Structure formats: structure tokens, C-alpha cells
Amino acid sequence: DIVMTQTPLSSPVTLGQPASISCRSSQNLVHGNGNTYLTWLRQRPGQPPRLLISKISNRFPGVPDRFSGSGAGTDFTLTISRVEAEDVGIYYCMQATHFPWTFGQGTKVEIK
Amino acid sequence: QVQLVESGGGVVQPGKSLRLSCAASGFIFRNHGMHWVRLAPGKGLEWVAVISNDGSERYYGDSVKGRFTISRDNSKNTLYLQVDSLRAEDTAVYYCVKEAGWGGLDDNWGQGTLVTVSS
User: Fold this and answer.
1) Block means of pLDDT (10 residues each) for chain A, length 112 residues?
2) Which residues of A touch B62 (CB under 8 A)?
3) Residue B3 C-alpha, separation from nearest chain A C-alpha, in angstroms
């Protein structure tokens, strides 16, 4: 199975400052069809997860443009350009290239 | 508007079984693969299983393989998860999620159903 490793696991950030989360996969995530199925999600307590980014860098509708994704192969990054209070939560990367699909451990973003 | 309503959760003893259901509406159910994803308290998200649109293909996460069975009834627009031989570590909120056209998970999730395994 593909192991997804996120760093850091906790990220205290100052409002208005940038934040980034790294996600590394144990295998290359390029599918045979050429797509890389790396997704970023955020989960808040008591709520279902919300999808933020698909296929490395495509924002889902309604996701603010301060969120961006980048990377290739086995190394990926989610960046929040200027953190706002509503951005707190646990962020996960997930690979959907190979079965079984797997998630990273999660990174808790909180305000300092 | 996509709507997914999970049900069937509850408190169950270790070793027992439950059947979770997910009633789908707002899209053509028979055209989409469907997934179960779970979130254990204090732990992270875990992908559980997927079933193809016609039910011909199924895949499972390692921790549930051999104990859980995903199925669907396209005539009823309903997804199921039969969970057998339950363990304490299966305690989680279980979400059903539609597969999106781009190949991953859709952004419309239900509220989930809580399964608590406890003696």
C-alpha cells in the first residue's frame, strides 16, 4: 500500500501569514492515464470533510484562491497564502491513484 | 443537488455485525462508483471501500478486508456496507461519498453515521 506522510503534524500560524503542508508518497502517484490523483481535504470537528484541491493543483468550486497546491511524482505541497481564522482544521492529503486509496496522517492548523 | 444520507450506525459489541446504508439522491446513482470513508475519534481519515457503478468491481482497505462487504442496489439508489466481526478500532463515523467525474471523491458528503464498538 502507498504510505502518505505529511509534515508538519501541527502548524500554529499567525493570522495573515502563509502556511504550507508537505505530503510525500511512498510511490509515484502518476496514473497510467497520465493524471496524478492527489487531493487535499480539510476536516473540522463535527463536520464532514471538505475537498479543497484535486489532481495536485485544481481548486474545488468555492475554495478561496489563497489555497494552492503544487508538486509532482511523490512530493506535494498545500499552501495557504494568508491564513484566515476560518482556515483552522485538520488538513489531509489523499492519493487516489492506486487501490487502496490512502490518506496522510493529517496536519492540524491552528492560530497562534 | 447531491444528497447522501447515511444510517444504520449504533453501539455494538465486539464481534457483532451491522449494516450501514446510504440513501442517494440528486444524481444518477447507477452511473457512479461509490465509496465509504471513515473518521475514527481522535484519529485520521481512512478510506474503507469502493464499488463500481454496476457493482462488478469492489476494493477494500487492508484493515477491513475480509470483514466488510460493500454492495449497492441501483433500483433503490442505495449503497450498503455490511460490517462484520467488529473491533474496537472500527469505531468511527462512516461516510458514503460519490465518485466524481474526474476520478476522485466528490465534494458532497453526508453527515455520516456513527458506529461505536464497545462491550
Assistant:
1) 97 96 98 96 93 97 97 98 96 97 97 94
2) 1, 100
3) 13
